[in-house]
Amino acid sequence: MKFTNFEEVNNENMLRTVIIDDEAHARETLARLVLVHCPQVKVVGEAGGVAEGLKIIRELHPQLVLLDIRMDDGTGFDLLRLCESIDFKVIFVTAYEKYAVQAFHFAAVDFLLKPVNPEELAEAVKHAETLVQEHFATQLQALEENLRTDLRQKKKIVLKTLENIYLVEIQNITYCESDGCYTLVHTVAGEKIMISRTLREFDDMLSDSGFYRVHKSHLINLSHITRFEKQEGGYIILTGGAKVPVSSRKREELLQMFEKLNS
Questions:
Q1: Is 23 exposed, middle or buried (0-12, 13-18, 19+ CB in 10 A)?
Q2: Other C-beta atoms lying within 10 Å of the C-beta of residue 19
Q3: 103: which of 38, 146, 190, 253 fits an S-S bond (Cβ 3.0–4.6 Å)?
Q4: Which helix (H) or strand (E) element contains residue 90?
C-alpha cells in the first residue's frame, strides 16, 4: 500500500479523503487536482485495489472516497460490499462510456469521467458534502442494477425529495411535468413526485429510454400513449387518463412517429 506524502494541513474541518485506483499515475493526477481545486479536501492516503482499499478505509476512516470502478483485483462495488458500514461519501471515477454515464445519472450517484475535469471534480466534491448518507445504499442498488441492464430492458431511476427517496422503474413513469425549476413526475400508480431538477435534465436523461418532449412543459413516456386527440391543437391521452397538450411545433413530428409505428 502506498501513502502519498501530502503537505500537512492544520484545519481539522477539512474533508478527509482517500483515493483508490489501480493506476498509480491516475492516483497522482487526481491528488494534484484535488490539492489545487478542492481547498476543503485533505487527501490522507491512497490505495491500488480492492484489498488495499479496504485496509486503508478501515485504518484511516475517511469521510470521502474517490473510487475507481474497474481494478485489477475487483471492482469498486466489490470493495463497498466488503465494508462493514459505508459511513463515508463516495465519488466514482470511471472510464465508462455513454450507457454507463446514463446509469449514474439515473441513480443520482456522483461520478467523474476519466480524464478528470477539474471543474467537475470541484462540483462533485461540493455536492458530496451535502449528500444524505442514508440514501446511498438505495442509490448504489439502482446503479449496480442499471449497469447490468440493457437499455431496452427495465431500468430504475432514483428520485429524491426533501422527505423521501424513491426507486422507480422508468417504464412506470407516465410523464414529467415542468414546474419552474422543479419537475413533477407522474407514475402509473398515481403518485406525483416533486423533484428539484428541471424538465430539461429529465429530457436529457430519458430521451434514450422512450420519452419524448411534446411540449415545453411536458415530457411523456411514449409507451403509455393511449390516443391522440386532434381538437384544440392536439392532446395526448396517457395511461390513467392524463391529458397532455402537444405544441404546434411537435404535432407533425409526433404524427410522423405514429405513422412509422403503423408501417
A1: middle
A2: 27
A3: 146
A4: strand 89-94
Residue 133 grid coordinates:
448518507
Q: List pLDDT tens digits, range 79-138.
A: 999 999 899 999 999 887 665 777 888 888 889 989 999 999 999 999 888 877 778 888
Q: What is the pLDDT of residue 262?
A: 64
**Under 8 Å CB-to-CB from 132, ≥6 apart: which residues?**
165
**Backbone φ, ψ for residue 117 (5° rounding):** -85, 125
pTM, to two decimals = 0.69
C-alpha cell of 28?
497522482
Classify strands 156-160 and 165-169 as parallel, antiparallel or unpaired.
antiparallel
Amino acid (one-letter) located at 205: M
Judge if 229 and 136 occupy the same domain: no
186: domain CATH number is 2.40.50.1020
Domain of 218? Answer: 159-262
Q: Which of the two residues, 132 and 140, has the higher pLDDT score?
A: 140
Secondary structure of residue 239 in the 3-state scheme: coil
Residues 131 and 254 in one domain: no
65, 92: one domain: yes
